[in-house]
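Morning run. Coffee first, then this:
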Amino acid sequence: MKKLRSWRYAVLPAALACHGAHAQSSVTLYGIVDESIRYMTHANRAGDSSVGLGAGGMSQSRWGLKGVEDLGDGWSTFFKLENRITINNGQSDPTLPFFNEAQVGVQSNSYGKLIFGRQFNVMIEGITVGGYGSNPWIPYDFSFQPEVTMSGGIWTSNQVQYQARVHDVMFALGYAFGGVAGNPSYGTQVGAAAAWTPKDIPVTVGGAYQNSKDSVNGSSAKAWSVGGSYTWQKTRFAIGYIVNQNDAGFSNFANGPFTAPALAALKYTDFSRRRMILGGITQQIGAAWHFAANVWRTLQDGKTHAKDGSAWQYQAVADYSLSKRTDVYVEADYSLYRGDLIGAQLQGVNGVGLAQKGSQLGVMGGIRHLF
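And here it is:
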């Protein structure tokens, strides 16, 4: 995300003036405003189509504040507060906290960073840093990104995460506290991610593991992933593999983005295992054009045979930058759902609708501005 304005505090409290006269602080207001018109088939059980303003566009609209203070000797502290909004009505996303990201931390040029609060989980860190997420030039979390669902919802509350780079390897370790009295493991999440990103060859390889514990009974929902990308001139090839595996009793994870009723409505608790293979090609032409083609294949083993399912999903994107901060785009996606995946969300946290028949076509055009 790009900085539009930052300002330095002109006056430091007198109590700190003699302690760190050379320390510097900055606060930045940033955000994305993204809106689209979207057409979608099979938007209800009767099989009707819909057309209208989307809940977002290729990105979900958001605004936030982030700041950093230089402590000297390569050390600094930082914070981030971010709210996600729906441009259609100006309201905050009702499915997320008002500040969907809320974190504070300390970082060092030599020792990495330590982050506290609500933030990305390590599955998303592994997919994005590993280089195999779809459409890498787009700020993450938009209306058609099926790997987001397989990551367990992007964000985790009550989390402590450590991130660092050692030579060509970047890694992250995360732990979320459950806070359940008498059962300290209930509601917790532990994970690790790593990526090899050599500076001299255009290859990135990464992976992640994550284990979330049910907040009521301690059952596990495990996820792991591996993948990579290769860039040849301005063409990027990517492939990844993601697995989700749920214990029979898993139905409630309070540190995640969804309530227990929402998890059930999205059929996230119907499966014992989901496997997804994803691949994509991104082509940049000049400084302004991006084109992408992506495919996802998902196989579901249900907790009962009736809940087995499968899906094929395809997407094509064309994006043109009008300036450094503003772009316009068109996007088309087509999905084939079978079994219990009909009506399940495999589009991403900002999904604009669940498939209500065995196939679904979506087309949208939009405009996005970054500040």
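The two ends are 8 Å apart (CA to CA). Good start to the day.
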